[in-house]
Amino acid sequence: MIEYKFSKLLAGIAALGLAAGPVALQAQAANPLNIPEDAAFLGEGDPNVRTATAVVNGSVITGTDIEQRVALLLGASGNELSPEQLQAARMQILRNLIDETLQIQAATAQEMPVTDQEVEAQYAEIAQRNGQSVEGMNQALVAMGSSPASLKRQLRAEIAWQRLLSRNVAPFINVSHEEVTDVLARMEADRGTMEYRIGEIYLEATPENREAVLQNATRIVEQLQRGADFSVYARQFSDASTAAAGGDLGFVRLETLPDEMAAVAREMEPGQLVGPFEIPGGFEILYLIDRRQVGMADPRNAVLSLKQISIAFPADTTEAQAAARVEQFNTAIAGMRGCGDAERVASEIGAEVVTNNGMRVAQLPQQLQQTILNLQVGQSTPPFGSIDDGVRVLLLCGRDDPQTEGSPSFDRIMSQIEDDRIAKRAQSYLRDLRNDAFIEYN
């Protein structure tokens, strides 16, 4: 499976001399374009049914472009999609390809074209991050039904977009010294309060398409529950500005979120997925990545010295034999006198001992982390495992607790505020490019 870690971006009342009454204002607010309730399409064509090809300011997006990007999505998520989900994915990918085309065209028009050498360098970096050669990644992409050209097109658009933002947006973002010091002061006041690292997929909805959007959101959740990569789906389907970061909001305090999101996140545990649920303007899917206390040391960063003592079972072991072996194992572990006695006990019962002196608590499976944190040096976890995987315990032989975290630096806070403002301006910039574009659907 290829993991790619790059970002993608992503009327008033007429002056007629008459005052509108409350009923008229309410109707206008609900239907600002004054579209008749019984509106009917003229002709036989359904504008919602389009083939997945387009011409964007003269640049062609082909059906092959769509299908290769779909294959990239499927390969990254590791899941099959229903016909309805595939159609929704194709339409979203078409929108993404249109945006990418506009970004590449805008950079070229402003004499900032992306060179093939820049794209190849980024492509090689992704291959290296995946532990592959460039040729190996080429073959992997072709094997999944995509192509190197499809991924390189996305990379070219990403580089072009960052270049455009660096020239046309970033220089006009101003963050004052007072703003940063205010944030630092609030963070100091909030020391010890809880922060949540949240992933989101937001799908815009109107009263007219609400049910269709809800069905699409439900299908996305089903795929995520089957193991699909949340960040991949967020990049392809989310309408939020966080889509470019794989839906990652970063660490936030709940009071900064809309009430509906905060109420859901407050009840979540790390690793939990919730949604879709309705918020003003659409539907949210939330994934709680992590949580922490502001300005406090995270106990999961403690570095452990562990000994793992384990037993395995031959393939023909019966349940009765396994139960007797586990009982012998439990009795031996219960009588062990600390870490120095581990090798002797293991040799007596035919167990294996593996030592690790540099593992952080956070590297352990979620269900073991709190158990380990509650142990004293020389104590062991309860036995865990199965006949197929073997039974084992972890023996705590030492723990170096993390130091209390200091406040983030002035420069880091300033950079975070600037990045947030650039992301918001980028949305507006891309919207302008779309509004000015000539797009023909075939």
TrEMBL record:
Source domain of life: Bacteria
GO MF assignments: peptidyl-prolyl cis-trans isomerase activity
UniProt-listed InterPro entries: OMP_Chaperone_SurA, PPIase_dom_sf, PPIase_PpiC, SurA_N, Trigger_fact/SurA_dom_sf
PROSITE patterns according to UniProt: PPIC_PPIASE_2
Pfam families attached to this UniProt entry: Rotamase (PF00639), SurA_N (PF09312)
Start and end residues of each PpiC domain: 193-290
Span of the signal peptide: 1-29
Annotated keywords: Chaperone, Isomerase, Periplasm, Rotamase, Signal
PANTHER family xref list: CHAPERONE SURA
Protein name in the entry: Parvulin-like PPIase
